[in-house]
UniProtKB/TrEMBL annotation:
<protein>
    <submittedName>
        <fullName>Uncharacterized protein</fullName>
    </submittedName>
</protein>
<feature type="transmembrane region" description="Helical">
    <location>
        <begin position="640"/>
        <end position="658"/>
    </location>
</feature>
<feature type="signal peptide">
    <location>
        <begin position="1"/>
        <end position="21"/>
    </location>
</feature>
<keyword id="KW-0732">Signal</keyword>
<feature type="transmembrane region" description="Helical">
    <location>
        <begin position="616"/>
        <end position="634"/>
    </location>
</feature>
<keyword id="KW-1133">Transmembrane helix</keyword>
<keyword id="KW-0812">Transmembrane</keyword>
<keyword id="KW-0472">Membrane</keyword>
<feature type="transmembrane region" description="Helical">
    <location>
        <begin position="571"/>
        <end position="604"/>
    </location>
</feature>
Length: 685
């Protein structure tokens, strides 16, 4: 629970990129550890995995795509995932797409929602080239990911027909299923058009059904009747990840503790400490495809060698955890009122590292057990108190042992096996949050819509804040379940938040933290360029506020100076846009009027000798120059181009109307009969 709460508290940080890290045993049926979210063991999933292993393959009828998330064209397919255990080296194959694909051992398999639509994506693959008779190059970038649709949202209706449906290529087709996704208080409706592109549907564009229905994603095993998947996205991710684990060094007998994955965006291998970059050497059991893949697991050529290597790695982990603990202890306290954007970024980085270390130290003991990896030497080392955790292990720490580890100095913990290293880190992390409360205070304020407001201004405020942190971080002895019958000295809405807080979906954490990483990077980068940042996450949109900066704004003097400089630059940019807009509007209007004037002279009744190639040439030259000027306005900024274009159109239409009216008056005066002089002669007398 603490890891989920960490992810929630620091949802606005640079956090949790290790999507496929720290998987539990495929054979033991423990679910994947996705972004530090502890998921319960599922017997149904275990049975599914066992059946897939026996059958050697499974299929699902769905849609797939390849490429960048923002520009996917989805195609229907019967997608088959197949063990290729008789190949050398063995691998997992995807069939039924445009060609066959080989998934590499260090691939990332993760869930992601695209505008509410559930999918999984796979990075780390090779496509089979028929003309060459072999697989092509490796692709690890998320912009080249394989996407599998795993629809979980209900069908609420179909699209209406509109006037553009048959006339224009971008028109909306009628009769497509409309799916509805609820995210907080926001409702997202979407459909797949006839070209396989996901489109949003407004309420007036939907013909709603009387009742909602659900698309069924079925697991198809050879020789068995199809079976509905309860959670298609999660189940599919687990099955594919389990197959990769079976084909990697995690198979029986295991020669590594964890399957690796490669994070292409940060160019790192994970999980930390159990994975490293592949060199230029030939392939082996830890990196079967050699330099073609990016990462290889920590292990050995045999089960016994891997056991000893992993046991050595545990000592390295202990040292690194205590080094990080020392860094947290030495970090200066920063009150909420004095915190700035730079301190937010520093806090984010340290807590991210601490969270990853806690994940590793909680997870790896389970991979050492006889029913999992079966590493007796490493398991014996992990059985000592300094490696014990207070959750999930068979021989857990007691509250007294947890508190004792927190009271000892780092040197005492480093030189002994009697004090828990993860407990020392967790104690220090809790203290770190108490002395740097800015992230937590701002998070709660926005998450509860200003109803839970904590402070660190006075001693009593700090005491209440400390109590909240203890419960929120699930410190042993502070159980959330106790709060249902106990009233704490906290604002009412803060206690309600603790009691009602539910674990966020792992894929939501992934998407939101990816977006928050970009926001935080823009907010803390002195060289970041201006522009409009589109925020898809409702939590982030609410927290950032109408100006898009409220949560990440710092309040130090340096930050205020930076803000003033940014505002000054914005003012200069706005003034420059106005000037460019006026200049482009004026000259574009002049050239367009000259062009239309030349055209009128060419085709008019009085064209005479003025007509000819030169006459039309002047028209085209003026129109091209006017068009280039308008292109320059749009290149400056889209609003500048739109404003200039609207101005030109208004002036041209107004001029045309004025000329038409003036010509009508002149024609009327020309045909008017002369006055009868006899009738008006008396006026001269």
């Amino acid at each position: 629970m603490t890891r989920q709460r960490l992810a929630c508290v620091f949802i606005f940080m640079l956090a949790m990129r290790d999507v496929s890290a720290a998987r539990d045993s495929f054979h033991a049926g423990n679910a994947a550890q996705v972004v530090g979210a502890a998921m319960k063991e599922s017997s149904d999933r275990y049975q599914q995995q066992e059946k897939v292993t026996e059958a050697g393959s499974f299929s699902i009828s769905t849609m797939w795509a390849r490429g960048k998330q923002s520009s996917l064209d989805w195609l229907s397919a019967n997608v088959t995932f197949r063990f290729k255990e008789h190949e050398s080296p063995p691998y997992v194959e995807i069939d039924g797409l445009d060609t066959r694909y080989r998934i590499l051992p260090d691939a990332v398999v993760a869930m992601q929602k695209i505008d509410g639509m559930a999918t999984i994506f796979i990075t780390g693959w090779q496509a089979y080239r028929d003309h060459k008779g072999r697989f092509g190059s490796s692709h690890y970038s998320k912009d080249e990911a394989l996407w599998i649709r795993t629809e979980t949202n209900p069908v609420v209706g179909v699209t209406n027909e509109n006037i553009f449906s048959e006339l224009l290529p971008f028109g909306r087709d009628a009769g497509h299923k409309v799916y509805e996704h609820k995210e907080g208080g926001k409702i997202i409706r979407y459909f797949m058009n006839s070209r396989g592109v996901q489109k949003m549907a407004e309420e007036d564009e939907v013909q709603f059904h009387a009742t909602k229905s659900q698309d069924i994603v079925e697991l198809q095993l050879p020789g068995e009747a199809p079976k509905q998947m309860a959670n298609p996205d999660r189940d599919l991710m687990m099955l594919v990840d389990g197959m990769l684990g079976e084909m990697s060094c995690m198979g029986k007998p295991s020669t590594c503790a964890f399957r690796c994955f490669y994070d292409s965006e940060n160019d790192v291998c994970g999980p930390s400490h159990f994975c490293e970059k592949v060199g230029a050497g030939p392939g082996d059991n830890l990196a079967p495809f050699g330099s073609v893949q990016k990462c290889k697991a920590v292990g050995g050529s045999s089960h016994e060698d891997a056991d000893g290597r992993i046991a050595e790695k545990l000592e390295d982990i202990k040292g690194d955890v205590l080094d990080l603990t020392e860094k947290l202890e030495r970090s200066p306290a920063i009150s909420e009122s004095d915190s700035g954007r730079s301190s937010v970024k520093e806090t984010s980085k340290l807590v991210q590292e601490a969270n990853q270390m806690l994940n590793i130290m909680e997870t790896f003991p389970m991979r050492l057990l006889p029913e999992a990896g079966d590493f007796p030497v490493a398991a014996a080392r992990a059985a000592h108190t300094d490696m014990k955790h207070w959750r999930r292990g068979r021989d857990r720490l007691t509250i007294q042992q947890y508190q004792e580890a927190g009271s000892k100095s780092i040197s005492q913990v480093r030189g002994s096996q009697d004090y828990s290293v993860p407990a020392k880190l967790h104690n220090t992390l809790v203290d770190f949050l108490k002395k740097r409360p800015d992230m937590l205070i701002r998070f709660l304020k926005h998450e509860t819509k200003d109803q839970c407001v904590l402070s660190d201004a006075t001693a009593s405020d700090r005491e209440r804040l400390g109590t909240f942190v203890n419960y929120y971080m699930s410190v042993p002895g502070y159980s959330i379940n106790d709060l249902k019958d106990v009233t704490l000295d906290l604002p009412a809405h803060c206690q309600d938040f603790l009691v009602s807080e539910e674990a966020m979906d792992p894929e939501s954490i992934v998407q939101t933290t990816e977006e928050s990483q970009q926001i935080l990077s823009n907010a803390t980068s002195a060289s970041s360029e201006g522009g409009v940042l589109q925020v898809k996450s409702e939590r982030l949109a609410r927290a950032l506020g109408p100006d898009g900066t409220s949560f990440l704004q710092g309040r130090t003097a340096a930050d205020f100076a930076a803000d003033e400089s940014e505002r000054a630059q914005e003012v200069v940019f706005i003034i420059l846009c106005i000037v460019v807009c006026l200049v482009c509007f004026f000259f574009a209007t002049v050239f367009f009027m000259m062009g239309f004037g030349s055209l009128a002279g060419c085709v008019g009744e009085s064209s005479g000798a003025n007509s000819g190639p030169g006459c039309f040439g002047a028209y085209f030259v003026c129109m091209i120059i006017g068009g280039l000027i308008m292109w320059g306005a749009f290149a400056m900024a889209t609003p500048v181009g739109i404003a200039a274009l609207i101005g030109v159109i208004v002036v041209l239409i107004g001029t045309a109307v004025y000329k038409a009216a003036h010509l009508e008056i002149r024609e009327h005066e020309f045909v008017k009969p002369p006055p009868k002089w006899k009738a008006v002669a008396h006026l001269a007398m």
